[in-house]
Amino acid sequence: KAMYGLLEAGLLWYDELCNTMTELLYHKSYSDPCVWHNDAKSSVIIYVDDLLLLCKNIEEENRIIDALEDKYKKVTINKGDTIDYLNIHIQRSGDGLLVHQEPYYSKMLKDLGFNPNEKQDEENDTLPYKNNLFDIDDDSPALSKANEKTFHSIVMKLMFPAIRTRFITLLPVTFLSTRVLHPTEQDQNKLVYMLKWLNRNRKGGVFIGPENGEDDMKVYVWADASDNTHWDAKGHSGIVIGLGKKFLCPVLVTSQKHNLTSRSSTESEIITVYKATPNGVWIQECVNEWGYPHDHFDIFQDNVSSIIKSHQGHKAYSKMAHMNRRFFNIKEYLDNGKIKMPHCSTTCMIS
Q1: What is the pLDDT of residues 308-326, one digit of tens each?
Q2: 20: Cα separation from own chain's centroid
Q3: Facing residues of 299 across strands?
Q4: By CB neighbour count within 10 A (0-12 exposed, 13-18 middle, 19+ buried), where does 170 fall?
Q5: Whole-structure pTM value
Q6: What are the two backbone dihedrals, phi and then psi, of residue 66, each rounded to the nearest 5 degrees?
Q7: For residue 18, what are the contacts with CB-CB under 8 A and spacing of at least 6?
Q8: Residue closest to 309 by CA, chosen among 263, 349, 278
Q9: DSSP string of 42-81?
Q10: Scanning 50, 114, 134, 238, which has the fewest C-beta atoms within 10 Å of its C-beta?
């Protein structure tokens, strides 16, 4: 009954908020029910009872705030050159915005009581992991139940900023997340190494906006795979989706272990493109709705064989027929012109 009451109250609050947005001449996004737009390209993003206003001018911002205060009486306003939205700090920086989570890291490390004095002994301190990240020692002792719970908790806390603002940590966090059920001392050492790196490199995030000059507002996708990477012969996908080819404002960055074992590098690349395509389509729909229409987006691939096979599809009973659903899903988007798949050399693959 208590949970039902909370759900009912939440739905009532959302209905009231929707009515308020309609009265302000905003309409709900077709691609995301938690985003509202008006015809002047101002937008309101809703996450439960936290709203982020993206307004063309101060007058529009004040109009929305006045309407909310009139309806709900007490509204907490967070504005200025730096705002905190859901533990994500959005800070004005030059001609753009710096999105970071430095306070989140500082609080997490403080809560853990993590403040090592020793200097990290490593030749390359630019990355939060060593070259042996994917190595698994079967003889490494398992952690105690208490340490296992702590290990799991820390990895999940690190996942939050890794997928939003600190993409350099995404690879080690993704790997460690596959080890949370039965972590060993070896896994714990990798986690401690990463925490030491974070302790010295708390600053860092995503810059949104061109450094100089103009850029386009088209969607670009870099989809790359590393075949036979993990101990169980499964591959790993890296996907970067962003706006603007010249400066690239990242919208979605993922690093994931494959959930099936591929037979070749071509299959690994196809799996990655298959994962990237629906996300690219959704982001393109959002950008089109925001007022920057374009009829297709590019998925960059560095595997020529994958590009050829994506355009061809595969006949039944061929050696790659088991991949048909993926092949023909991608081919359908290629045939109707929704996506294009230009070749990109491996050295230029951002993902």
Answers
A1: 666 565 555 455 555 556 6
A2: 30
A3: 221
A4: buried
A5: 0.80
A6: -60, -40
A7: 28
A8: 263
A9: -EEEEETTEEEEE-SSHHHHHHHHHHHHHHHS------SS
A10: 50
